[in-house]
Design brief:
The chain is α/β, with parallel strands linked by helices. A six-stranded mixed beta sheet has the order 5-6-4-3-7-8, with helices on both faces. A two-stranded antiparallel sheet has the order 1-2. A hairpin with an 8-residue loop joins β1 and β2. 44% of the residues are buried. It is found in: Membrane. Keywords: Ion transport, Membrane, Potassium, Potassium transport, Transmembrane, Transmembrane helix, Transport.
Length: 791
C-alpha cells in the first residue's frame, strides 16, 4: 500500500560505500525523490507513483500444474461445446427429412469439421486467446485493453501506475496505430459505438446463459423418448422443467462442493462420445471420410441452394460454447486451454460428429434423434445418465458465467447495483446474484415450456452465439491494428476471413427470426436498454458532481475548524470524485452542528483492469494544510475484483494506510530539509548514503520538524501529533457520511432526456441495491444527507 514504511530508500540500491560514485548516486536519488514531492493540495498523481511490487503476468508454470489446469478446464470451459452433438444434426436437417442422404450428410459433416477447425482452433486457440487482459478474457477484457491504450473511458493518472495497467506493446509506434488511437480519443461517436458493441456482446452472453440450460437439458432428457417411444413430448418437457428448477434453486449454495466432479464427469462424457463415434465409424459407411475434402461444401451449397444456406443455422450450433474458452481464461491459462482443446475436446468432437454422420447415411430417418439412436443398446442408459450430467454441468457453467458478466457490467458502471453473494470462502470468484438467477430461471422455463423442442431453441441459440463471436472479431481486429501493431494486411485478413464466415452464419440464423430467433434479440434489446440507461444516468450524475465541486479557496477561507465545531471521531465522506471536494460536503457542514476532527474523503473507483493487487489498492493524499486533518482516499478495484472485506476490516486497512502516509510524509519532509541544509552549506557531497540512513533513522527529525518561516499555516503539525489524533479518533468511533441524492433532469432539458432521467433512470435507482448496502456500511454508523442533482 502507498506509504508503507520507506520502501523508496530500501529499493534505491544505495550501498554503504563512501566513495564519490556512491555519493553522487545518493544526491541524484534525493533529487529524483524530491521531484515527486507534492506540489499542490488537490492532486494524487505523485502519491500513486510508487507501488510496492510489480509482478509479471507471463504464465510460466510447471508441466504438472499445466496439465492439472488443462484437466480442470475441461469441466468448466468445454461443457457447452461438448454437449452440442446432442442437437446439431437434428437442428441442421429440420423436419426429419434429408433430400439426398449420402451426399448431403457428407456435405453437412464437411461444414461441421471445417467450422470446428477454423473458429475454435484457428481463431480462438491461435489468435484470440493472445488478446487477453493480464490473463483475463471476455468482451469486457477486450474493451478494458482498448480503453487503457486509448483514452476511451475516464482514466485517472494514478490508474496508469498500476502494475496490472501496463501494456506490452510488441513493436515500435506506428503512424497507423497512433492515427486510430487519436480518432478514438477525439470522437464521441466512436467511443459510444465501441461501448455499444461491448454491451451488445455482454447481452448476448446473458442470452447464451438463458438458452444453454434450456436446449442442453431438453436435448439430454429427450433421450427418454428413444427408450420409451410411447412417451409424450409433454412429459419430456415437464421432466426438463423439473431438472431446470432444481438446478436454479441450488445456485445459492454455490458449486464449490461439487465442482471437483465437473472435470471427471465432462472428461468421461468426451471419451464416451468419442468411443461411440469411433464405434459407428468402424461399423458404418466409410464415405464419411470424403468430408475431409472441402469441395463437398461447395457441392452441398450448389445442390441445395437456399436450403443449404438456411441449414447453416443448425451447423453453427457445433461451436456453441466456443466463446467460453476466452471468457473463462482468467481461471486457467492460455496453454492449459489450448492443450485441453487440441488433445481431448477437438478429437472427441470430430469422432462424435463423424460417427453420427456414418450412422445417418445408413439410417437417415433417425436424424431427429441422431445421437441417442446411434448409441449401442447395452450402454444406452449409462450414456443417458452421463449426457444428462453433462447437460447440467454445461448449464451450470453458463449460469455462473452470467453472474460473472453481470458483476463486471456493474463494476464498469453499466448495470444497476445488485445483491452479490459469495458462495465460497476459498474461491472469491464464485458468486451468486439472486435477481439474475431467478430472472434467468423464469426465462429458461418459459422458453422450454413454450418451444417444447430443440429446433426453435436452436434458432434462438444460434443468434446469441454468432453475435458474440462477431463482437469478439471486431474488437480483436482493433487490438491487432492499434496495440499489437501488426501488418495491416494480416489484421484485415483476420477480419475478412472470420468476419465473412460469422456473417454468413448470422444471416442464416437471422432468417429464422420468426421461428424462435426473436428470443435473444428481444432479450438483448431489453438488457441493452437497461444498461445504457444506467450508464447514461450515472455519467450525467458524475458530470454534475465534477461541475459543482467546492473550490479549495473556499475551504481555506473556513479555517482549520471548517467554520463549525470539530469533535473527536473519524468521518468517512463517501463521494465519486478523485479531485476536489464534493458539493455534498457543503451540506454536511451547513446542516450538521459539528464535524469530525479527522475527515477522509473516500472514493470507491473501478479501473479498467482485471484486478488491482492488494498492495496497490489504496491511495492516500492530504487535502489542505496539516491542521485541517483532511485526507483523500481512493480505493481501487478491477472489474473482476470481489469486495469481500467487512466494514471492520476496511476500517483497519484505511487507518493503516493513513498512518503509513503520515509517516512517509514526515520522512519526505525530513529528506527535503536535509537537502536544503546541504545546499545552503554549498556542500552537496555531504548528501551521501550515510546521510540517507541517518535521516531515515530519524536522527535529524527533531531539528528538522521545526516550521520554516515560509511554510504555510498549519504545516508545523508534527508526525506524532497527527498519528495520536488519528488513533484517538479511531478509538472514539467512525461515522460514514453519505449523500443520498435524487437525480432529476433540468427544466430546460429536451423531452427524451427528461423521460430517461426522471422516469427510467429514477425507477432503476429506486429498485436497485442501495449504495450503503453495496459499500457494506453498518447501519448504526451511517449518516445521510439528501441532495437533488439537476443534470
Amino acid at each position: 500500500m502507498v506509504g508503507s514504511g520507506s520502501p523508496e530508500i530500501q529499493s534505491a540500491g544505495i550501498s554503504s560505500s563512501d566513495d564519490d560514485e556512491d555519493s553522487t548516486a545518493g544526491v541524484d536519488y534525493l533529487r529524483r525523490r524530491l521531484k515527486r514531492l507534492i506540489s499542490r493540495h488537490d492532486s494524487l498523481e505523485e502519491e500513486a507513483a510508487y507501488f510496492p511490487w510489480m509482478h509479471s503476468h507471463n504464465q510460466s508454470s510447471s508441466g504438472l500444474l499445466l496439465f492439472k489446469l488443462a484437466f480442470q478446464s475441461i469441466g468448466v470451459v468445454y461443457g457447452d461445446l461438448g454437449t452440442s452433438p446432442l442437437y446439431v444434426f437434428s437442428s441442421t436437417f429440420t423436419g426429419g427429412h434429408i433430400p439426398n442422404p449420402e451426399k448431403d450428410i457428407v456435405g453437412a459433416l464437411s461444414l461441421i469439421l471445417y467450422t470446428l477447425l477454423l473458429i475454435p482452433l484457428c481463431k480462438y486457440v491461435l489468435v484470440v486467446l493472445r488478446a487477453n487482459d493480464n490473463g483475463e478474457g471476455g468482451t469486457f477484457a477486450l474493451y478494458s485493453l482498448i480503453s487503457r491504450y486509448a483514452k476511451i473511458s475516464v482514466v485517472h493518472p494514478t490508474d496508469r501506475q498500476l502494475s496490472t495497467y501496463k501494456l506490452q506493446v510488441p513493436s515500435k509506434e506506428l503512424e497507423r496505430a497512433l492515427w486510430i488511437k487519436e480518432k478514438l480519443e477525439n470522437s464521441g461517436l466512436l467511443k459510444n459505438l465501441l461501448l455499444l458493441i461491448t454491451l451488445i456482446g455482454t447481452c448476448m452472453i446473458i442470452g447464451d446463459g438463458t438458452l444453454t440450460p434450456a436446449i442442453s437439458v431438453l436435448s439430454a432428457i429427450s433421450g427418454l423418448k428413444v427408450a420409451v417411444p410411447a412417451m409424450d413430448q409433454n412429459v419430456v418437457v415437464i421432466v426438463s422443467i423439473v431438472v431446470l428448477v432444481i438446478l436454479f434453486s441450488l445456485q445459492r449454495f454455490g458449486t464449490s462442493k461439487v465442482a471437483f466432479l465437473f472435470a471427471p464427469a465432462l472428461l468421461l462424457w468426451f471419451l464416451t462420445i468419442g468411443v461411440i463415434g469411433l464405434y459407428n465409424l468402424s461399423r458404418g459407411d466409410m464415405r464419411v471420410f470424403q468430408a475431409l475434402n472441402p469441395w463437398h461444401i461447395y457441392l452441398y451449397f450448389k445442390r441445395n441452394g437456399k436450403v443449404a444456406w438456411i441449414s447453416l443455422g443448425g451447423i453453427v450450433l457445433c461451436i456453441t460454447g466456443t466463446e467460453a474458452m476466452f471468457a473463462d481464461l482468467g481461471h486457467f491459462s492460455v496453454k492449459s486451454i489450448q492443450i485441453a482443446f487440441t488433445t481431448v475436446v477437438l478429437p472427441c468432437l470430430l469422432l462424435a460428429y463423424g460417427g453420427q454422420a456414418s450412422y445417418l447415411i445408413r439410417n437417415p430417418e433417425h436424424v431427429g434423434e441422431a445421437f441417442y439412436k446411434s448409441i449401442p443398446g447395452p450402454i444406452f442408459w449409462p450414456v443417458f445418465v452421463i449426457a444428462t450430467m453433462a447437460a447440467v454441468i454445461a448449464s451450470q457453467a453458463m449460469i455462473s458465467a452470467s453472474f460473472s458478466v453481470m458483476k463486471m457490467a456493474e463494476s464498469m458502471g453499466c448495470f444497476p447495483r445488485v445483491h452479490i453473494l459469495h458462495t465460497s470462502k476459498r474461491f472469491p470468484g464464485q458468486i451468486y446474484i439472486p435477481e439474475i438467477n431467478w430472472l434467468i430461471m423464469i426465462l429458461t422455463v418459459a422458453l422450454t415450456a413454450g418451444f417444447k423442442d430443440t429446433t426453435q431453441l436452436g434458432n434462438a441459440y444460434g443468434i446469441a452465439v454468432v453475435a458474440t463471436m462477431c463482437v469478439t472479431t471486431s474488437l480483436v481486429t482493433l487490438i491487432m491494428l492499434m496495440i499489437w501493431q501488426i501488418n495491416v494486411l494480416v489484421a484485415l485478413g483476420f477480419f475478412l476471413l472470420f468476419g465473412t464466415i460469422e456473417l454468413a452464419y448470422l444471416s442464416s440464423v437471422l432468417f429464422k427470426v420468426t421461428e424462435g430467433g426473436w428470443v435473444p434479440l428481444v432479450l438483448a434489446a431489453g438488457l441493452l436498454f437497461v444498461m445504457y440507461i444506467w450508464h447514461y444516468g450515472t455519467k450525467m450524475k458524475h458530470k454534475y458532481e465534477v461541475r459543482h465541486k467546492l473550490p479549495m479557496d473556499w475551504i481555506s477561507q473556513l479555517g482549520s475548524n471548517l467554520g463549525t465545531v470539530r469533535v473527536a471521531g473519524l468521518g468517512l465522506v463517501y463521494n465519486e470524485l478523485v479531485h476536489g471536494v464534493p458539493g455534498i460536503f457543503h451540506r454536511f457542514i451547513t446542516y450538521l452542528p459539528a464535524i469530525h476532527s479527522v475527515l477522509v474523503f473516500v472514493c470507491i473507483r473501478y479501473v479498467p483492469v482485471a484486478t488491482v493487487p492488494r498492495e496497490e489498492r489504496i491511495v492516500v493524499r492530504r487535502i489542505g494544510p496539516k491542521s485541517y486533518h483532511m485526507y483523500r482516499c481512493i480505493v481501487r478495484y478491477g472489474y473482476r475484483d470481489m469486495r469481500t472485506e467487512t466494514a471492520w476490516l476496511f476500517e483497519q486497512l484505511l487507518v493503516e494506510c493513513l498512518e503509513n502516509f503520515i509517516r512517509r510524509e514526515a520522512r519526505e519532509e525530513a529528506l527535503e530539509r536535509a537537502e536544503n541544509a546541504a545546499a545552503a552549506a554549498n556542500n552537496e557531497s555531504l548528501c551521501t548514503p550515510l546521510l540517507l540512513r541517518r535521516v531515515e533513522s530519524g536522527e535529524f527529525e527533531e531539528d528538522l520538524m521545526v516550521a520554516d518561516n515560509d511554510d504555510e499555516a498549519g504545516s508545523s503539525v508534527s508526525e506524532d501529533d497527527s498519528l495520536a489524533l488519528l488513533r484517538k479518533c479511531r478509538e472514539t468511533g467512525i461515522v460514514y457520511l453519505l449523500g443520498h441524492g435524487d437525480v432529476r433532469a433540468r427544466k430546460d432539458s429536451f423531452f427524451l432526456k427528461k423521460l430517461v432521467i426522471n422516469y427510467f433512470y429514477a425507477f432503476l435507482r429506486r429498485n436497485c441495491k442501495q449504495r450503503a448496502e453495496t459499500l457494506n456500511i453498518p447501519p448504526g454508523q451511517l449518516l445521510r444527507i439528501g441532495m437533488t442533482y439537476f443534470v
